[in-house]
């Protein structure tokens, strides 16, 4: 039997409360209330709890663990993802993947680990006045988080799906490299996106959250943070409180619970954190809240190979190429990062265009299909302002992300680059994932076909698993929701410590950027709240 | 009943009003809302739509095929039930729209009740929405595409066709 660290922790007496099962409205009190338990919330929780602060975590998703992770999409998507993995932008043209469970997106992510590119940091320093964001200042935090989460080169040979990316790139003389992963004792089976069944993935679920709970933090699950209510001396409220409701659908959903705290850390993820501030009617004198939300808009190219690929098996995303990022100026036309994702039946079926016989024929090639994706680097050019988080009538968030010609120019180059690499790797046929695309049988044909494709929202399939921004940091309050320390420019008792901080996209898979930057900021916050020396590492 | 929300829905707003059918829609919506107990609109629609979306993928054997279609319908309903309320309302609106005779006729070209619809007409409807210049109709096509194909390939009985043995044993 495999160990289940969550069940063991619960047996040891962790303070975990299921908000859906509370029969009455409750009042809680803590030094710090953290909203969200993903990359940012997990790291903050461990740091702040270990600094001796009384911490309460609020998570809208459920607490699931390895014994629940059955490697089936039918279980995983509704249980572990926002909107059953079918979250869409406002015009429905981009499908957004985000986690909604303890551990947040880290419970379902694909383990690729990159430090923040220096070009991105340089842009922040000059454009956002974030002078402290230098590679040398961040290095100790990257090193600390890499050690904490076992981030290391992946020694096992790549699966065929990834090997084909390096093979094609090599043939064309395009530089490529191996991806580091946050795993310890990985079985190389490839189901990271459905929750790791072996606890090898060093997500927040099995690292920082257990550490915080062991150190005495309290975790409220199935608990949606609705809004922050400000202190009001006249009303006898010395501190602010967070209003929390059980997840929709619970029989107790009408109840309201209150969490009073000296300080609030928002780590509900991009979309989630700005939405909470919007519902709280936080001051936003310069109309920046929720704006500049970025996605690394991602397009896909499928290739049929003569030999089996079995892209569902083996660690996902172990090879990448930054050639098309590094050969373009960061503030020029959109560059893109190339990777090879895992394929599973539902994701494959819903991604492939068309239906009926034609779709069924593609499905029969499941095991012979090699897939690449291109992550477009958004947010660095004036024509790439990203999207804006808005609230629906019921207070739930929706992201408006207009797809512009600037984005589509990058999309076309990305389709071309992937097709060329795939043919170089020996593809029989290449199919960009687009309603109008043909099944191309040669690079010549693909180049012409892709060149002529009409690129429009909806018919161009665009996805995102990297939501960033919306509470941008900037030393200038006219440009940011929070300052370089993550502190809200208008509300001194609120910090944002998650991916929504980023003033642009990262230009690389974002998890390690969040871990390291949040560790640094949470350390400073711990010191400030306790009056003691900052915790050096985690 | 949330008739107001339905009328507000952009789907109807843009397309049908443009077609000059406002009053008919209003009457039909009222009638549909008054029908009690409401028909199971998802079952009705999928009876016609799922076999066309899944042509070439369903088992040939009649009994297996109807079991497969039942599982697809159940799967679609499960996914919809797991959506947050605002998204669920949108999907409900889509199926309600497809259930109202006059709206269906205007927007899909299928006049017959779904049960009696000719597969060729269903195919024509899917093509019309898939390539529609009206974003809301096109996104309606994608919603049906993703719900139905997703529900079928989530089902283990579909995996044989993919040559997918399912997840490995982890113990
Ligand atoms: C399928 C997938 C694959 C990915 N692969 C990679 C990868 O290989 N490498 C990489 O670097 N990155 C990857 N990412 C992205 C990475 O995991 C995220 O960028 C990162 O986890 C974001 O951290 P966060 O703290 O901002 O938010 P999250 O980790 O998303 O956590 C936010 C948490 O807040 C909760 N929440 C939201 N709203 C509320 C509310 N109102 N009340 C209470 N709780 C709330 C959510 O349920 C969630 O648990 C992937 C993401 C996905 C979805
Ligand atoms: S590939 Fe490794 S990390 Fe991913 S699910 Fe399998 S065992 Fe876990």
Give structural notes:
The complex is a heterodimer of chains A (538) and B (171). Chain A has 538 residues and is of the alpha/beta class. Chain A has 15 helices and 24 strands. Chain A has a domain at 1-116 and 133-149 and 202-293 and 470-497 and 508-538: FAD/NAD(P)-binding domain. In chain A, helix 6 (135-148) crosses helix 15 (511-530). Chain A starts with a helix and ends in an 8-residue tail after the last helix. Chain B is mainly α and 171 residues long. Chain B has one domain (38-159). Helices cover 71% and strands 0% of the residues of chain B. Chain B contains 10 helices and no strands. The model of chain B is unreliable at 1-24 (pLDDT under 50). The complex binds flavin-adenine dinucleotide and iron/sulfur cluster (SF4).
Q: Could you give the topology of this structure?
A:
The complex is a heterodimer of chains A (538) and B (171).
Chain A: H1 5-12, E1 15-18, E2 27-35, H2 39-50, E3 55-58, H3 73-80, E4 87-88, E5 94-96, H4 105-108, E6 112-113, H5 118-127, H6 135-148, E7 151-153, H7 160-172, E8 177-178, E9 180-182, H8 208-214, E10 218-221, E11 223-229, E12 241-246, E13 257-266, H9 272-279, E14 293-294, E15 298-304, E16 319-321, H10 323-326, E17 336-339, H11 345-351, H12 356-364, E18 369-376, E19 388-391, E20 397-400, H13 405-424, E21 429-432, H14 443-452, E22 462-464, E23 468-469, E24 494-496, H15 511-530
Helix pairs in contact in A: 2-8, 2-15, 6-15, 7-13, 13-14
Chain B: H1 3-8, H2 10-18, H3 22-34, H4 41-53, H5 62-82, H6 85-99, H7 101-108, H8 119-130, H9 135-154, H10 159-162
Helix pairs in contact in B: 4-5, 4-6, 4-9, 5-9, 8-9
Residues 35-41, 58-61, 97-101, 104-106, 108-112, 193, 224-225, 267-270, 272, 276, 317, 465-466, 498-499, 509-511, 514 of chain A line the site of flavin-adenine dinucleotide.
List its traits:
heterodimer, A: 538 residues, alpha/beta, FAD/NAD(P)-binding domain, 8-stranded mixed sheet, 6-stranded antiparallel sheet, 15 helices, globular, B: 171 residues, mainly alpha, binds flavin-adenine dinucleotide, binds iron/sulfur cluster
